[in-house]
Amino acid sequence: MRGIDMMAKTTLITLVTLAILSQAHATEILVCYPGGGNVKPSQAQPTMARMLSALESLGGWPAGTFEHKFTTKLDQCLKMLDEDKPAYVITSTGLFLQRRKKDKLEVLVQPVIAGSTDEVYRILVKKGSASKLQDLKGKSLGGSLLTESEFLHRIVFEGKIEPGTYFQLKPSKRTLRSLRKLAKGKLDAVLVNQQQFSALSSLPFAAEIEPIFESNPFPLVGLAAATDRTSVQDRKRMAEALGKLCKSAQGKDICDMFGLESFKPVTSQNVYIEVEKLWDRR
User: What are the C-alpha distances in Å from 42 to residues 38, 39, 46, 115?
Assistant: First the structure.
């Protein structure tokens, strides 16, 4: 009996050790979306856990292959990129442009939203209050998209406007709150993305608001890989799994939750060449 007990203990120790090693070597996916509203990591945890489980199943990886960290704060994003050195990053176009060289990032897939892989930003005002950007100089600009000021400066305004000095920035965790203030005359303008603009029609005060600025379209980033921390095979496998996600039983409701139709594989990084030129321009 003593021999059996020792064998059982040895087996248990081996299993625990393997579990610890497996967890220690889990591949990290950093979900890092500056200005992503008031979503807390604890609130994102269940959805991300389901998404990673679906990816593992669709890609044929063992359960527990991936782990994630989540933040909507720019300073935390940059700190995690520096300290954790994740293999994969789900992030904004702005953060991708900022870190693409340092982290050797390559975009694997783009999200498809309302049939498009591009994003457009607009500035909204109360009808009749302004007709062009120049009318808003020194005025208040609200919304949830004001965190990445360098991205706004270089890409959205194409280097022509420095938002932090041109406007009085009034960031909010919720765009709807800013839009309500706009309708009440408590804000002069609000910055919105395409999804937020498309949802305007459902608001009771939609007829009182109009856009006076529309950015040139820029490409969305879905998931990017650090090429020095992943292999070509790893990246291909991940892109294929994400391509199946929104059509799968495990992932369809997750995609629906975020208004995603699918993930489109990026076959050439040239998709980002124009915004990279804008970003790098001095």
Answer: 11, 8, 8, 31
d(CA 155, CA 193): 14
Q: Out of 37-46, 52-61, 159-168, 233-242, which region has the weakest mean confidence (pLDDT)?
A: 37-46
Are 54 and 69 found together in one domain?
Answer: yes
How would DSSP label each residue in 25-36? TPEEEEEE-TT-
Average pLDDT over residues 214-220: 97
Helix (H, G, I), strand (E, B) or coil at 93: helix
pLDDT recorded at residue 241: 97
| Number of alpha carbons in the 13 Å side-chain half-sphere of residue 93 | 26
| Amino acid, single-letter form, for residue 269 | Q
The confidence band for 45, taking pLDDT boundaries of 50, 70 and 90, is confident
Question: Do 101 and 229 share a domain, yes or no?
Answer: yes
What CATH number does residue 74 fall under?
A: 3.40.190.10
Mean pLDDT of the chain: 89
Per-residue pLDDT at 125: 98
Residue position matching structure tokens 């600025």: 213
Residues 76 and 28 in one domain: yes
Residue 179, amino acid = L
Q: Are residues 76 and 37 in the same domain?
A: yes
Mean pLDDT confidence for 206-224: 97
Domain that residue 18 falls in: 2-116+219-280
HSE toward the beta carbon, residue 80, CA cutoff 13 A:
24
- Residue 9's CB is within 10 A of a number of other CB atoms, namely 10
Which ranges of the chain does DSSP label H, i.e. alpha helix? 2-24, 41-59, 74-84, 93-99, 149-151, 163-166, 175-183, 194-198, 232-245, 252-257, 273-280
